[in-house]
Amino acid sequence: MSVADPDPVPCDPTRIVLIRTSHPGNVGAAARAMKVMGLRELVLVQPRFPDVLVQEDTVAMASGAADILVRARIVDSLDAALEGVHTACATAMTPRDFGPPTAAPREHLPLLAPAAAAGQRVAFVFGSERFGMSNDEVRRCQVCLSIPTQPDYGSLNLAQAVQLIAYEWRLALGGYPVVERTKAPERATLDEVHGALEHWRGVLEQIGYLDPAAPKKLMPRLQLLLDRAGLTREEVHILRGIARAVAGRTPSAPM
């Protein structure tokens, strides 16, 4: 008996391919990296553990991206993983002596986006944690993406590499809008700010910081400070709460 997919996959031009992964946690973390960038198709080539998609570490590291694991496929070869793909992008730290051109993701991926928008499928291929991709596997691809890193140490965890490529690809496809607060905080009225200022005047006199006989310009300066701050009503309540707490701890406070 098969269970119906509760969330059908929309048209997605992207395929993430992981070759000979060793650690189940990396598979789960890669699935999570994909999900946050809206990528849905994951294919594993000869993983170390045939049951990697259901192992405890995999599911734990997926952290809410179990649907990616449910849809993922395991195949025996890179050729099988790239079936139906129009453009394959290898990933490697350093360029190879012979093979496809090497490019930075941010420079190259926008060039692929129009074809992907037209329905052509793009695959991003990642090698194993220990050995990366072989020369033959890199040559199976049309471009080699190299993430610009600090020259003396460019080693990235597999899931980190997937996250970076997925982020750059999502930007190239148009990105997602930044979600802003739906309701702006309510601005304090002038009388509420004045009430807070008067509250603090009494507290400052109580603790001996303000001499009512020679106030100088302390209160006008505080007025300017509060005006510049553009206080919200909540912030006014906080200031008055602090004033009450200070007044309650001074020796001259009424018992």
UniProtKB/TrEMBL annotation:
Main localization category: cytoplasm
Stored InterPro entries: Alpha/beta_knot_MTases, RNA_MeTrfase_TrmJ/LasT, SpoU_MeTrfase, tRNA_m1G_MTases_N
Residue ranges of every copy of the tRNA/rRNA methyltransferase SpoU type domain listed in the record: 14-167
GO molecular function: RNA binding; tRNA (cytidine(32)-2'-O)-methyltransferase activity; tRNA (cytidine(32)/uridine(32)-2'-O)-methyltransferase activity
Substrates-to-products reaction catalysed: cytidine(32) in tRNA + S-adenosyl-L-methionine = 2'-O-methylcytidine(32) in tRNA + S-adenosyl-L-homocysteine + H(+); uridine(32) in tRNA + S-adenosyl-L-methionine = 2'-O-methyluridine(32) in tRNA + S-adenosyl-L-homocysteine + H(+)
Location within or outside the cell: Cytoplasm
UniProt keyword S-adenosyl-L-methionine present: yes
Domain of life: Bacteria
Top-level class of the enzyme under EC nomenclature: transferase
UniProt-listed GO biological process terms: tRNA nucleoside ribose methylation
EC number: 2.1.1.200
Family note: Belongs to the class IV-like SAM-binding methyltransferase superfamily. RNA methyltransferase TrmH family.
Classification via NCBIfam families: rRNA_methyl_1
Official protein name in the record: tRNA (cytidine/uridine-2'-O-)-methyltransferase TrmJ
